Amino acid sequence: MAKPIMAKATAVWLVDNTTINFKQIADFVGMHELEVQGIADGDVAQGVKGFDPIANNQLTQEEIDAAQADPLHKLKLKFNAAAQGEEKRRGPRYTPLSKRQDRPASILWLVKFHPELTDGQISKLVGTTKPTIQAIRERTHWNISNIQPIDPVALGLCKQSELDAAVQKAAAKKAKEGEVMSDDERRKLVSTEQSLGMDAEPKIPTAIEGLETFTLSGNDDEAEEEGQKGDYSDADSFFTLPDGTHDDDEDEESKS
Predict the structure, then answer these.
(1) Half-sphere exposure in the Cβ direction for 43 (13 Å, CA)
(2) CA–CA dist 141, 232 (Å, integer)
(3) What is the structure's pLDDT at 196?
(4) What is the Cα–Cα distance from 133 to 112, expressed in whole angstroms?
(5) Measuring CA to CA, how many Å separate 122 from each of 7, 48, 104, 105, 179?
(6) For the chain: N or C, fewer Cβ within 10 A?
(7) Cα–Cα distance between 76 and 2 in angstroms, integer?
(8) What is the dihedral of CA 13, 16, 17, 22, to 10 degrees?
(9) Is the entire prediction scored with pTM above 0.90?
(10) 80: exposed, middle or buried (Cβ count in 10 Å: 0-12, 13-18, 19+)
């Protein structure tokens, strides 16, 4: 349901100038009933000037009269032909000047981690042009060496729900065309809510990497080599010195 512009100021005017109950006003302006009650008590929207919905072509006097006569009547926004189709405006969205320098980083992130997105989808998500996206794809952008990929959601260029919707739409189109997706591409299609609910994959600590293939059973050839070096199963054989070593020590002691 469409909501009026300047919702809080409209609620202030309706509280001050009508006898419509809080529930009706809250449903009309898209606020909570307690917040509307706070406006009436003077705790909320202090200093906010009321916005007349009749003078601004949002409500009719007949609609207000009907709501005052029937507590269950729901206010309906006045039909405005000039406002039709505003939600379906095409083309890239407006990006504030303070965030325009972050667009190349977000484009590189989308191109790298979501290659299934089309140039048109990326253009709508971050508010850029197709030549810029193409330049980053082909790495011919004038500043490509200094651009680091950054999530556009983290930069505030789009919402996570918008990104998820675009990715899901691209996946559906790809599946419809009969293209087989790799496991890595399919993993990227999981939404934020689903990914946060997944169990973390067990990881092997770096200190013991490679030990998963270690076995205690030795090789037969290695066992034979060990047997050739000597049998040290008893103490006498272990402390027996090699031939000639004892005689050399005695000769040196006699000379001294």
Answers:
(1) 6
(2) 71
(3) 47
(4) 12
(5) 32, 39, 11, 12, 21
(6) C
(7) 9
(8) 80
(9) no
(10) exposed
